[in-house]
Amino acid sequence: MSMLDKIRLARQNKNPAILTDHIPYAKALGITLSVEDEELIGRMEFDQPLIGDLGVGALHGGTIATLLESTAILTLLWQVDDMNIPKTINSTVEFLQPGRPLTTYATAQITRHGRRVANVRCTAWQKDRATPIAASYSHFLLVSS
Length: 145
Hints:
single chain, 145 residues, alpha+beta, Thiol Ester Dehydrase, Chain A, two-stranded antiparallel sheet, 4 helices, globular
């Protein structure tokens, strides 16, 4: 089964876990997806190896950035028809607060979708969605299937 077939199957069944089950790095970090009110939500359960600063117990910035980028890419795959895996052109992450040893969530909004490029804004939070711990803005090269 091709990745495009997996994407279609995930959409038909409203089961984004079909996508993350085939991404080893997402599985290693404990990144999962769910659909809530037609919105795709990325989730990264806390695990001790995700700590980057043992002194303050803060999550490693790379794990937060990976959650943001993964959520952005998977949102594109979830919402845009007939697309292969988007290729990251660049991504800028703003770390707003330290990530605590808690479950971290992320959502993405496609701010521009052209023929060849898409721009996606993503935010991550822990306890309160209104208080983000990080935000990213990414540009992706789109490759049609």
